[in-house]
């Protein structure tokens, strides 16, 4: 489905039982971006630049395939230790459980369902009754991640549907 891309977590096999689905993926020993962000009080701008470049490349790839992730957040971004000349970490986008195909042939699919993680969801998802949304919701989520890395804070103060940051 996703093919192979340096910023997408690769899955090798899927096994189904009566009650579970098991996915065998590549080993990503660097942990979650979320834990790295929590651990360090300050992330150097050069690191933030590298992280955002990798994330934008990965998201651009899935959008070119006609997919949207819909749940981009630091917990769904894993790190893989670089090897050889590539020092540091390679970022991998994982957990495509809420992903959706947005292009059906020449037509775009209309999406209205509310899904994702509070604090990373785009305004279009909250306005789902009035307007459909598209893959640009992933770009909004990347903006939230970028803001959190720069400031160490969330851009929004409320994380529930009744008092969300998009109500007007």
Layout of secondary structure:
Elements: E1 11-16, E2 21-25, H1 33-39, H2 45-64, E3 67-68, E4 77-81, E5 89-93, E6 100-101, E7 103-104, E8 107-108, H3 123-126, H4 136-151
Antiparallel strand pairs: 1-2, 3-6, 4-5, 7-8
Architecture overview:
- The chain is α+β, with helices and mostly antiparallel strands and 168 residues long.
- 28% of the residues lie in helices and 17% in strands.
- It has a two-stranded antiparallel sheet with strand order 1-2.
- Helix 2 packs antiparallel against helix 4 (136-151).
- The longest helix has 20 residues, at 45-64.
- The mean pLDDT is 83.
List the defining traits of the structure above.
about 170 residues, alpha+beta, Transferase(Phosphotransferase), domain 1, two-stranded antiparallel ribbon, about 15% strand, globular
Q: What structural class do the secondary elements suggest?
A: alpha+beta
Report strand %.
15-25%
Global outline: globular
**CATH class, anyone?**
Mainly Alpha
CATH architecture heading: Orthogonal Bundle
In round numbers, the mean pLDDT is 83
What is the CA-CA span between the terminal residues? Answer: 39 Å
Uncertain segments = none
Main sheet: strand order: 1-2
Number of β-strand runs: 8
Looking at CATH, the homologous superfamily is: Transferase(Phosphotransferase) domain 1
Radius of gyration: 17 Å
- Helix count from the secondary structure assignment: 4
Helical content band: 25-40%
